[in-house]
Amino acid sequence: PPMAAAATGRRLLADSRLRGVLVGYALFAFTWQATAGFLPTFLPASKSFSPAVAHAGVGALFVVGALVKPAAGSLGDRVPRELVAPAALTLGALAMGGLVLAQTPLVATVAVVVFAVGLMSYPPVMQARLMDLFPEESAGGDLGAMRTVYIGVGSLGPTYVGVVADYWSYTVAFATLVGCLALAAVLVGVFGR
């Protein structure tokens, strides 16, 4: 019902912790969608790597992500989630920086694998942490509303990279994604406690 959606929105926006986490999560989603959409173009266009290297990088992103999510979720059950989530984003930001600076296919591939570990470790840990932060009586609706916002913002990531690449370069676009992840790590570290 519209009244329930409005109440959920007001509740999420009234809590400064949830606002900060929402912005951090949106920056994560923005970076994830941008990378998934443009990594196969970035590697040949900016690095002059072969299409095979680009496709291997994209494959690694998804395969590593599928493997790391259960392990990350388990880690988040044993180590405080409010520590694991920003650490995962920090690892992702550092690896994305390594990818932007990479000069060889091997270094770029390693950077993509480490990026995937950091980036894909975040969702299971942070979604569990969100359930800790939401009131029990509205946790499902709150998570649904938050996901709607951060997925919506995330969907703009590929458009952003395309526009920045047209006006400047793919390197500039991907370098700014490093900043997005770094800011996300700070926000989640500060507001996710």
Average pLDDT value?
A: 92
The gross shape turns out to be: globular
Distance between the termini: 31 Å
Provide the succession of SSEs: HHHHHHHH
Task: Report what the structure shows.
The chain has 193 residues and is mainly alpha-helical. It has helices at residues 2-14, 16-47, 51-78, 81-101, 105-133, 139-154, 157-167, 170-191. It is globular and about 50 Å long. Helices cover 89% and strands 0% of the residues. The protein contains 8 helices and no strands.
Please describe the structure with a list of short key phrases separated by commas or semicolons.
single chain, 193 residues, mainly alpha, 8 helices, globular
Task: Tell me briefly what this model is.
The chain has 193 residues and is mainly α. It is 89% helix and 0% strand.
List strands and helices in order, with pairings.
Layout: H1 2-14, H2 16-47, H3 51-78, H4 81-101, H5 105-133, H6 139-154, H7 157-167, H8 170-191
